């Protein structure tokens, strides 16, 4: 791990040690819960956590319902926008032969991938005003910012600006 004036830097290997064709696909199994779970290990979650569709649509979002530790949750499943992917990262394991260095502790690799995520609320129905859903609008902003600008676009913008003056 490197420290600099700008913080800590590391590497992320999105290819990982798992070939892309055999990477675990967690599509439909990734959930963002409105709580903190202080446990890190395997658990038979699907045995206890069973989301069901309610048939209700709010702000164009299909509402699902589930219970976690007796508390009612309401959520919606959102697709990762085209051209983007979701990844589950884990610390990259160093070779047994090599000594674990500071660099190794900041290396991450892909463990699984997903194409949608279910966002849950416990006190309210999901809506377009949820912070997590609003964050998805940044994908379209990023696309617009990184899209090449043509000569025609520049000419149209300068004509519009002249007309405003």
Mean pLDDT: 84
- Strands of the widest sheet, in order across it, are 5-11-8-7-6
Q: What is the molecular shape?
A: extended
Alpha-carbon Rg, integer:
22 Å
- Care to count the β-strands? 11
Low-pLDDT residue spans: none
Q: What structural category arises from helix and sheet content?
A: alpha/beta
Number of helices: 4
Give me the strand/helix succession: EEEEEHEEEEEEHHH
The biggest beta sheet is recorded as: 5 strands, mixed
Distance between the termini: 53 Å
In helices, the fraction of residues equals 10-25%
Beta fraction of the residues? 25-35%
Protein model, in words:
The protein is α/β, with parallel strands linked by helices and 165 residues long. 20% of the residues lie in helices and 35% in strands. The protein has 4 helices and 11 strands, in the order E-E-E-E-E-H-E-E-E-E-E-E-H-H-H. It has helices at residues 45-48, 131-135, 137-146, 151-164, and strands at residues 2-4, 7-9, 11-13, 24-25, 31-32, 52-58, 61-68, 71-79, 86-91, 107-114, 116-121. The strands form 3 sheets. A 5-stranded mixed sheet has the order 5-11-8-7-6, with no helix packed on it. Strands 3, 4, 9 and 10 form a 4-stranded mixed sheet that branches. A two-stranded antiparallel ribbon has the order 1-2. A hairpin with a 2-residue loop joins strand 6 and strand 7. The longest helix is centred in the C-terminal third of the chain and has 14 residues, at 151-164. The radius of gyration is 22 Å and the shape is extended. The N and C termini lie far apart (53 Å).
């Amino acid at each position: 791990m490197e420290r600099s004036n700008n913080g800590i830097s590391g590497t992320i290997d999105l290819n990982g040690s798992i070939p892309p064709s055999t990477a675990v696909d967690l599509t439909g199994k990734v959930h963002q819960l409105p709580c903190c779970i202080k446990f890190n290990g395997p658990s038979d979650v699907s045995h206890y956590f069973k989301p069901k569709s309610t048939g209700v649509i709010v702000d164009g979002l299909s509402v699902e319902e589930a219970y976690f530790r007796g508390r009612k949750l309401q959520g919606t499943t959102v697709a990762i926008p085209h051209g983007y992917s979701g990844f589950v990262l884990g610390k990259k394991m160093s070779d047994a032969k090599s000594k674990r260095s500071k660099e190794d502790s900041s290396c991450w690799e892909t463990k699984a991938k997903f194409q949608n995520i279910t966002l849950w609320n416990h006190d309210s129905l999901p809506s377009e005003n949820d912070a997590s859903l609003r964050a998805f609008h940044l994908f379209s902003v990023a696309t617009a910012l990184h899209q090449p600008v043509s000569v025609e676009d520049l000419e149209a913008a300068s004509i519009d600006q002249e007309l405003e003056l």
